[in-house]
Amino acid sequence: MRPDDRVRIRHMIEAAEAAQRFIANRQRADLDTDEMLLFALVRAAEIIGEAASKVSDEPAERCPLFPGSKSSQCAIASAFPRLSATGTKV
Description:
By secondary structure, this protein is an all-alpha fold. It has one domain (3-79). The chain is 64% helix and 0% strand. It has 5 helices and no strands. Helix 1 (3-23) runs antiparallel to helix 3 and helix 1 (3-23) crosses helix 5 (72-79). It is elongated.
């Protein structure tokens, strides 16, 4: 895997972990009243999307679940096998 793919995937993981921290102990209704929370979650999604759009096809090609498509989940799993689907270390 290319070094820049690893960096981008790391950015995706960090943004997802941040989003998980932001929503801990929150309710769906908080999104309607907390503008900062909403903005932070949207920004985290933007970071994930931007990084995912620049990951090469190589990580996706290693994943038989999604042949021919870019899959950020597959890229994360192949780059960081010690992380589970929830992003916690195994």
